[in-house]
Design brief:
Layout (H helix, E strand, L loop, with lengths): L7 H12 L3 H14 L4 E7 L5 E6 L6 H6 L26 H8 L1 E7 L6 E7 L2 E8 L4 E7 L6 H5 L4 H18 L4 E6 L2 E6 L7 H13 L1 H5 L1 E8 L2 E8 L4 E2 L5 E5 L2 E3 L2 H11 L8 E2 L1 E6 L5 E2 L10 E2 L2 H19 L9 H9 L7 H20 L12 E2 L9 H8 L5 E6 L3 E6 L2 E6 H18 L5 E11 L2 H9 L1 H6 L3 E4 L4 E8 L7 H14 L10 H12 L9 H13 L13 E5 H7 L4
Parallel strand pairs: 1-7, 12-15
Antiparallel strand pairs: 1-2, 2-6, 3-4, 3-6, 4-5, 7-8, 9-10, 10-15, 11-14, 12-13, 16-17, 18-19, 19-20, 20-21, 21-25, 22-24, 23-24
The chain binds adenosine-5'-triphosphate (ATP) and magnesium ion.
């Protein structure tokens, strides 16, 4: 075997695989170059999800002819004047992006340097340089990529459909727009404007950022957010974090920027989860945009060719800073954040070892209610009057005849005896006690009913007296609109309503009164995650469980005994009713002998 040096085109194609993975990453490289060139406005135009065409026009300082000829050469960069890899003030400095893209596509770059009267254009076609020629252009640069990966068919095959690639591109644009509030951006796809944000005004970064976040995430977010500003050693964390009640069905809207660069980082995801753990259920996710400033010495941004990952010298400090800053801010936000006590917290308690048993304390605690009991018993004790453990005696409760109750008790889930904390149904079976989580149980039942209705009769719909207009981002709205036909089969009738909104006219009847806004937003989140090749029916579980969750008897609603028994009777005949759609149990059962053991009677 002979060793040979690879030709430059091959080297560039290999590098391209690392730098550009898909249209979104090419867009990132071009937009970052535009920002490095001091642009105030960056316009991105796409066709065919960016696979066919990407055009990025900026009004930055441009390139004179000699620079233009150099910029497509490998390792040609203007951004590393003194070869100090740790002192980088620009978004790029590897001098790889343009030659790599040129190796795998048809690339043209037209540019007119600041103060120059003429514009020039250069091209690279599958790695082959084309001659320089005059061009017509205002100040700035216009880079165009046609047929990305046409020169590397194997890589082309790895791309997803146009819509998926477009979603990635839009997500990338949001990140870039978030990190650079003073720059205006537009994104146009096949002639439709999907994103337009003007340069955000204001002298302070915070003010500009908040304006930009409102433009990108909605005014809702800006209204439900806490400002973060914390420091630890050489690190500073700023930005905005959503209050826990403003949460989403997935973690997509959690943005971290390290020295102005959007990064995806496990450390960040874990820190956020930890900070919100006490406030949010495990399957809900907060929305936030945080900016970490670090001394270039403490963070290596060069570990990843696409610069999407970073490495910290001391990740413990960074994690501590993020968790601490968020926890403090959430605690200070007080009641704003205090509505949800997470299932996550409960899980955490269970996972921890039980606290050491301290007899004296435990007994002091235990004695108190006993002392109180004597007094209440004299005054005519009844459960319903004890404020601490309120048992809801629904109006029909006392009417239940013993014989009836006995008949009910023969069912596997027993006869309802009461409702605790407006959330749990307590029921008596022949040989034990059952505790039902009414929300979880109902959710499962709605889901199963919906599945059945779909195969039998079609889902009955209920017309809304007032159609609801729901604002979303343009891609989410168009994702929903594209699936309108399928959603209608599931009982949800909606139509596009201008760019970035849908109007809902009918909802599945079996959802009853539901939170339509929340439902549609969560569905849009689902659709963004679902594979476009699958029909909604194939992903029925995901969609239905989202619907069911919004249409279910919320924890906190008072039920009559008849309603409680009806719920349990339906659970008994419904498959899979022992767990909710998120895999949590819908009821727990304690057999009498377990209870006896608990009290040392056995
Ligand atoms: N939009 C632009 N306006 C002005 N100059 C540009 C523009 N795009 C690229 N350049 C010039 O071309 C050079 C090469 O760009 P390229 O993206 O290949 O490398 P880089 O930005 O230096 O580093 P990296 O590979 O890390 O992105 C840049 O250093 C810059 O001087
Ligand atoms: Mg670059």
């Amino acid at each position: 075997m002979n060793i040979r040096l690879l030709p430059e085109t091959t080297v560039n194609r290999i590098a391209a695989g690392e730098v550009v993975e898909r249209p979104a990453s090419a867009i990132k490289e071009l937009v970052e170059n535009a920002i490095d060139a001091g642009a105030r406005h960056v316009d991105v135009v796409l066709a065919g999800g960016g696979i066919q065409y990407i055009g990025v026009t900026d009004d930055g300082m441009g390139m004179a002819r000699p620079d233009l000829e150099l910029c497509v050469e490998r390792h040609a960069t203007s951004k590393l004047p003194d070869d100090d890899l740790l002192n980088v003030a620009f978004l790029g400095f590897r001098g790889e992006a343009l030659p790599s893209i040129g190796a795998v596509s048809r690339l043209t770059i037209a540019s007119r340097a600041q103060g120059s009267a003429e514009a020039w254009q250069i091209g690279v076609d599958g790695g082959k340089r084309l001659p320089v020629k005059p061009a017509a252009l205002n100040q700035g640069t216009k880079v165009e990529i046609r047929d990305l990966f046409y020169a590397t068919p194997a890589r082309l095959k790895f791309l997803k459909g146009e819509r998926t690639e477009l979603n990635h591109a839009l997500e990338m644009m949001r990140r870039l727009a978030m990190a650079n509030p003073e720059v205006g951006f537009t994104l146009t796809h096949d002639g439709r404007v999907l994103l337009r944000v003007p340069p955000a005004p204001g002298d302070l970064f915070d003010a500009r950022l908040l304006a930009r976040l409102a433009a990108l995430l909605g005014n809702d977010f800006a209204d439900n957010t806490i400002r973060i500003d914390a420091e630890r050693r050489n690190f500073r964390l700023t930005g905005f974090a959503g209050v826990p009640t403003y949460n989403r069905g997935n973690g997509q809207q959690q943005y971290l920027f390290v020295n102005g660069r959007a990064v995806r980082d496990k450390l960040f995801v874990g820190a956020v989860r930890g900070a919100y753990m006490d406030y949010l259920a495990r399957d809900r996710h907060p929305v936030l945009a945080l900016f970490l400033e670090a001394d270039p010495e403490d963070v290596d941004v060069n570990v990843h060719p696409a610069k999407a990952e970073v490495r910290f010298k001391d990740s413990g400090i960074v994690r501590g800073l993020i968790v601490g800053a968020l926890r403090n801010a959430l605690a200070a936000a007080g009641h704003q954040a205090s509505t949800t006590v997470g299932a996550a917290a409960l899980g955490a308690i269970r996972r921890e070892a039980p606290p050491p048993f301290r007899p004296s304390e435990a007994f002091a605690e235990f004695n108190r209610p006993l002392q109180g009991f004597a007094e209440t018993a004299q005054a005519g004790f009844s459960y319903a009057d004890t404020p601490s453990a309120r048992v809801e005696t629904a109006p029909s409760m006392p009417v239940m005849q013993p014989a009836e109750a006995q008949a009910e008790a023969r069912h596997p889930l027993g006869a309802a005896r009461g409702q605790l904390h407006e959330t749990y149904i307590i029921s008596q079976t022949e040989d034990g006690i059952v505790i039902v989580d009414q929300h979880a149980a109902h959710e499962r039942l709605v889901y199963e009913r919906m599945k059945r209705a779909l195969t039998d009769t079609g889902v009955a719909r209920q017309m809304l007296l007032l159609p609801e207009v729901i604002e979303l981002d343009p891609v989410a709205a168009s994702n929903l609109a594209d699936r309108a036909h399928e959603l209608a089969e599931l009982g949800l009738a909606l139509e596009p309503f201008g760019a970035g909104a849908v109007v809902v006219r009918e909802v599945p009847a079996l959802l009853g009164d539901c939170d339509i806004r929340g439902l549609v937003r969560d569905l849009a989140d689902d659709l963004a995650e679902l594979d476009e090749a699958l029909s909604l029916k194939e992903r029925l579980e995901d969609v239905c469980s989202t619907m069911a969750c919004h249409g279910s008897v919320r924890a906190g609603r008072r039920l009559t005994v008849a309603e409680m028994n009806a719920l349990m009777r339906e659970m008994e005949v419904t498959p899979h009713s022992g767990q909710c759609n998120h895999g949590r149990p819908t009821y727990v059962e304690l057999k009498l002998k377990d209870i006896e053991r608990l009290f040392g009677r056995r």
